[in-house]
Amino acid sequence: MAAKFSQQQPKGPTIGRRFGAAGERFIPGAKPQNAKGTLIRIVKIYMRWAKTIIGAIILTVISSVISVAIPYYVGSTFNTFDIAHRSVDSGRLVSLLILILGLYVVNWLLSLVNGVIMLRISQKLVFTLRTEFFEKMQRLPLGFYDTQSHGDTMSRITNDVDNISSTIAQTTTQLISSILTLIGSLAVMITLNLPLTFVVLLCVPLVSLLTKTIAAKSRAHFLAQQRSLGALNGVIEENILGLKMVKAFDRQEDTILQFKEINQRLCESSTNAQIWSGYMMPLMNVINNFVFAVVAILGGILSVSYGLKVGTVVSFLSYSKQFAHPLNSVAGMFNTIQSALAGAERVFEILDYEEETKDRPDAIEIQNPVGEVSFHQVCFSYNKTKPILKNVSFHVNPGQVIALVGETGAGKTTIVNLLTRFYDADSGEITIDGVPVTQIKRDSLRRCFSVVLQDTSLFSGTIMDNIRYSRNDATEEEVIKAAKIAHAHDFIHKLPKGYATNVSAATDNLSQGQRQLISIARAVLCDSPILILDEATSSVDTKTEKEIQKALVSLMKNRTSFLIAHRLSTIRDADHIMVIGGGQILESGNHQSLMEKQGRYYEMVMNQMGKMPECTYSMIK
Known about the structure:
The chain has helices at 35-46, 50-78, 90-139, 142-147, 150-192, 194-200, 203-241, 243-248, 252-278, 280-306, 310-332, 334-351, 412-419, 442-446, 463-467, 476-485, 489-494, 512-526, 542-555, 591-597, 600-609, 614-620, and strands spanning 5-7, 81-82, 87-88, 373-383, 386-396, 401-406, 427-432, 435-436, 449-452, 461-462, 502-503, 530-534, 560-564, 576-581, 584-589.
């Protein structure tokens, strides 16, 4: 088939930046810490269930009013005793006792209902945050996954979200109740006795100073704890997935040392966080007991010398404890709040990460694509210091087979990644059927491609599900037909459950070659006009490779195909071979013309096959 192919020489690169280089790491907590902003953001998410929250607040208000009223009535029971006449108002005493008992029961029921409501909301919050987090992951650019620890990302979506939800469940109603109880208790105490009220208020500046001091010390430790936990999860994940390599290279001891080092950092940060937050309750008890003692002494003096009723003193003793109790509650929730804020910052960091470039408002659906591809002066780099592609230009007619060869890191896979818009070019233009890829909707663009990557990806489910992954509506007969074309049917049929055999990315019940055959069958089933094979046969034996190549010959008919291969024998029949090096197209042509040119491609063939007799060389040509 006649083929048109053009190549333009680069005229100097235009280097831009999209994402960090693979060697860089996405640094959690790189932005300035903003506890207030994080807390406000949590509240905004929380208020999505405003009606239910309002109901819970109403119950909390009623509960707080009851909590404030109970000490008053307790004091009133003491006033039913007339010490001077040694008598008691039995009827009023019984009524007050029944009332107090009723208030306690009602308060318990309100707290129970409120707790259930808040637990339901907290679980909805977990569901919503995890859903939004996972949806965000689908919109993140590949540059994020190239530079971010997978274990740390998993830690954010599990541990950090759990920390936020537990705080919501435990502290929200307690915080509201504490504020209302403080206000109510203060109002009642002012009406009863001002001197004793001032004594009770002594705890406020003391608690405020204590909380501020401990907050400054412990928050940094809680954030360090969450980071270390994410790093630990990353090490665990990497070593589980790469356990064979760990054992093969006898790196168990090094792995254990690495784990111990990170685990030690986690232990230290957790210990320091818990120690500093643990100071809160003992010191709070000291303040409470001090205030209680002063109230008792002053109340006794006022009662004996100034005729203050004993019941009022008893009420104040209760209020002194009750006034400090909300402050104690906040102190008790302190470590949970700190941990949640640290976790929330890490979660929001991902939610705020720059997403993959959105489709333009005028983006189109490409109709009936035929597979004409053009690169025009395309430049790309992962960072500002090392350009990967420099003004690369070429044109591929529909149905052509293009092979990309070159040394590792030359930019072969990068060309394919730009074509599929896994990354966007820094400059230049890439078109499919004459339409720039940036003007095509992503879902429409990616339906143009069938892709087989060097690293095979299988998902939890059956083999049938995995092949059908590229076309959910495919029938069983179509799946089997695709498997036969990919030469996967024979080994699948021999499995105990055949196409119903369960596989996943983590299990080793299939060899790497078998996994690659399933991946090829998936691409066959997709039936798209452009086929991309990135080292598609790198993990199969020579016999199977030849069988697959025969199948791919029929598969590539009437399809534009891009082949990336280190085995040069697999691409010799391509219409055009592009030799990539130094971010440029060094030479191009078919196998015979490039061999006759005796340039870079010729050197690669000679290096791969070694010195050969002249007759063998003639056969290659």
